[in-house]
Amino acid sequence: MPLLLPAGAGAGAGAGAGADGSGARYVLVASLDKARHLSTMLRAVHFRDVATCVATANGLKAGIFQEFVVQEESVTFRINLTILLDCLTIFGTSSLPGTSTALRMCYCGYGYPLTLFLEEGGVVTVCKINTQEPEETLDFDFCSTNVVNKIILQSEGLREAFAELDMTSDVLQITMSPEKPYFRLSTFGNAGSAHLDYLKESDLMEVFQCNQTQTNRYKISLLKPSTKALALSCKVSIRTDTRGFLSLQYMIRNEDGQICFVEYYCCPDEDVAETEL
Amino acid sequence: MRFRAKILDVACLNHFTRVINTIAKLAKTCTLRLTPGKLYFILTDKVANGGVSMWCELSQGNFFDEFQMEGVAAEHNEIYLELMPENLSRALKTAQNAKTVKIKLTNKHCPCLTVAVELPSLASSSRIVTHDIPVAVIPRRLWNDFKEPSVPDFDVSIYLPVLKTMKSVVERMKNLSNSIVIEANLNGEMNLKIETDLVSVTTHFKDLGNPPWVLDGDSQNSTQDRDPETMAEARVDIKKLQQLLAGQQVNPTKALCNIVSKRIVHFILLHEDVYLQYFIPALA
Q1: pLDDT tens digits for A80-128?
Q2: A35-44 and A81-88 helices cross at what angle (nearest 10)?
Q3: Domains along the sequence of chain B with CATH
Q4: Would you say the C-alpha torsion A65, A71, A74, A79 has a positive or negative sign?
Q5: Which of A237, B5, B88, B170 could make a disulfide contact with B67, Cβ separation 3.0–4.6 Å?
């Protein structure tokens, strides 16, 4: 796909356009052959209107971008995700075979809008989205050395379960254990309690490393948004640490075989005692 | 006053249905003008319509196998009816597999366009579904309100880009803003722009071509003197533009727009044998 023209298109760009077109004044430049790869992934986390975007030399899924240049150590800004998604899909969401939207994303730094250049079939669209003050991101302090239990499941196994979760239940209880029931999801709703057990020998189970029996409850309202990522993913890794914190990692493979990860962290519901079966 | 018409051919029926569906998307209520050779769907620029106006012309011979009408008087052999095209659209929905469709002007408890759809059936007698669509007869003294609009004295005339792309872009922009700026120049370039507090988006179309109009007298001079790079622009209600584009199902034979800077955008769409003009006024 041809590289897009950064400056020149779109008058009155102000400081947003590198005057010489080389992007030298940009703090962040990212180019992508198929904007759809980014929009698909962003949809996976689109359950709040605004997202904080952090770009470092390694971050922002450098694997899927053809070009990724970050001038500073790390670049952080907050942006309206709904608007970003509308811009990324400006040429429509369905794709004809042989057509795709090329994307170049540029950011001049604090106070400047995020500029997107999108091109499809010779038509160029320039979007300037205002950025906001970055919000404090929660640091869950989840580190792999404290992981007690770990499971990797094929997503298709969890999709139906999550779609059918009893939403009248305040919590989703997750039990992981080296012994029966191995991996159990439980809800306690108005109609009664429901338990869904996964056997460790099941075909869907790729990795089963449980050292200790743990039962933790998480507010179901906090976990429900993760179903978007689950729907797009092929595999999910479920880990709990010594504090009962939950880490969900979704592996999403796009149509070109590139792989991206979406991570969710959740802390356990405080009112419940642990290690109960 | 009499009117009766019949469609026998399935392709004609589908085509007619598509046209009615397009009209239904553009106007809640409009005027149907019947003459011996043509049908016209007309919307005049009243405040209630938000100032848009529409003129759609079809040759009856391209759709109907039989077409007979008698106007209000010999010297005025025309009929003007006010109706809701959505009603006609719904009636035609039941006609997808019809053997014949007959349309007749009748007087039940009020004037109606009666659509009788003959459907295939296994029994020897056919099933007929009848729809009575209420209409209002427009008296001759008001006919002057519905004259064909003249092409405005435009600043720029330009062919529209591929409608599918234009449709996608405008639909997305509709999520972001209530108004859109359409601008174009005599170099075949057109831009669609929206700008709000949160975001600005501009889509650039190139190499569209400018239609060669044959103008008389002074008008021709003014467009020839015009700098080809200068843009003529108008800010319009984005919903009206989106409705126009949404109604276009297949790429038209000819699609162009004339822009009178800051005043009005005039669209002309020709699809096989259907000629549609649509005017969207600029926002204050």
Answers
A1: 878 888 888 888 776 566 677 888 888 887 788 888 998 888 899 999 9
A2: 150
A3: 2-145 (3.70.10.10), 156-217+225-257 (3.70.10.10)
A4: negative
A5: B5
- Is A127 close to B168, i.e. CB distance below 8 A? no
Global confidence as pTM: 0.77
Chain A nearest CA to B16, separation (Å)? 28
- Nearest residue to B258 via CA among B151, B150, B108: B151
Residues of chain A numbered 111-150 and touching chain B (CB < 8 Å): 113, 120-130
Residue A134, token pair as written in the block? 């970055």
| DSSP of A158-207 | HHHHHHT--TTSSEEEEEE-SSTTSEEEEEEETTEEEEEEE-TTSTTEEE
A83 touches chain B (CB under 8 A): yes
Residue A63's pLDDT band (cuts 50, 70, 90): very low
Any A CB within 8 A of B59 CB: no
The residues with which A10 forms a beta bridge, in sequence order, are none
Nearest CA to B155 among B101, B231, B241?
A: B231
pLDDT confidence of residue B253: 87
Pairing of strands B100-107, B38-43: unpaired
ipTM of the complex: 0.81
- Please tell me which of the candidates B198, B200, B203 has its beta carbon nearest to residue A123: B203
More confident residue, A65 or B127: B127
Quick one: pLDDT at residue A29? 58
